[in-house]
Amino acid sequence: MNYFQLLTKEDIQTVCRSFPHKEMIQGFKKNPKAFNEMAKGYRPQSISEDRGRKLLLENSHTKLVTNMIEEFLKRWSSDISQRIEEYTNAGNSEIESHLKAFQDTIFPDGIELYFRLIEKPISAEYASLLTSAVSVLASERKKMSNIVSAPQVKVGDLEQERKDHKIEIRAKDSEIKKRDKAIEGLNTEIANLSTMLETLQGDLSRQIERIQELEESQNAQKKELEDAISTAHTFEVTVNRQKAELQEALSAVDAGKKREADQQVAIDSLQEKLSNIENALAEMREKPYQESDQLLYPTDIDEFSEYLGYNLKSIGVNGSTDEYNLLTEYLCDILFQNKPIMCNHVSGMALARCVSNALCGTKSIKILPYSSEITSKDILYYLNSEERILVLDGFLGNFNEMELIPIATGIRGKIIFMTLEYERTIAYLPKEVLLYFNYLNVSRIKDFFSEKPIDEDATEIMEQWIPKESKAANRNVERLCTEIMQQLGFGNDISLHIAQRMVSEEKLAQYLAFSILPYSCEALDYRPYETSERLQKYAGEQGKCRYKSLLLGWFGNE
Hints:
The protein is mainly alpha-helical. It contains 21 helices and 7 strands. The strands form 2 sheets. A 5-stranded parallel beta sheet has the order 3-4-5-2-6, sandwiched between helices. A two-stranded antiparallel sheet has the order 1-7.
């Protein structure tokens, strides 16, 4: 601890006035260069006590003096602490130990400073009492020392001197007994003073606690008053603003009376549209999962697939890999099923822009970010906008799925991306969401998340409404998909629902890579190859699956 930093200006003056002359000279001798700067032409041993203390005070800001004071205070405080401990161990009370320790020190005026240096500060009143008590004891001790100091025996008549000395000793013994009684009285007085000091300390502590309680109460009341004033000010501002808004509204009503008939027509029209929207919403809630028999589909799906591939390459997907071909074909399948697509935020934004740039002639997309203030009507209004590509960002896991599903699945002619803030959020959604949304996970494609901007030229593909036709599933592949999904814990309904799309082993590989296996890892917390024997047999090292190396690399160690 740096004691010098704890000293006030008065403390420094007191220490300099009490600094031992011998220690002062030794400190000057150890640092001749610094001393010469303080007292040119003088030798350390020639400095008198008064002159030395004056030099200390005048140069208290120098490194030499601060180090000397620091070392002195450390030795002095350590000596006091040791004496207090010795007196306490000898059976003295705390107050008696303090009084006896300080009356033996070379620095009796430093009582308050000592307690401050050991980080146990005392009140000014208690320090004054201790100082007074130490002064009284020192005075009595000096008197006793003078009384009991025996005179030296001179050479002379030994016999007469013996008699005289015997008489003198008797007188001294009598005097010593009187002084012993006086000392006993002083000890009693010290004990009484100690008791009184302890009582005063207790009273002072209680007063301090009471003052602190009053201050806390006052601060609390002050805070309440400030809050009340702030609330009143806010209320006043709100009232004034509402008055102004009311005045503006009244002015607008007055100014618009001439156009009332036209406005009423517009209002009736809007109410009719709102009623239609609400009826549609009610109808969707009554029939939430009814699929449309018409799909908006590219007139040339191969051309769209080619342009989509160019856009995927532009953001970093390697076009010479199996995952590139599987992803392109998987997207061409799920984009036009009239079912929203679930994916994480980063991949959802990137894919939405790629699809929009390849299909609609612009990489700009309209996004509706989640907010707690958004209602079902707000979502429905957004989904009925003119844009072909739409993104509901962050709604999954935050918005009520029972309201979100019928709204999103009831919209026709839109490609809707439903993004998750985190991939693991899918684990907190019911598995049945797979009956209404397609799941897409591209997190295992190495370069997909490079955040590289799209630099591919925009293209626009013509689309037309076509009847929804279900291609007949390949029975063997459908049965294989069902068995794998059931072994991975998807449940019978979901397994059969997805398996009916398996028109080929190529299609199964697409769904395994980007939907079924990543979902089993992220949502169901399974290790696919350890959980499903059918998957191990089909796409394991000895399996016949064409893409087994890719699937093993992605999911074999999960």
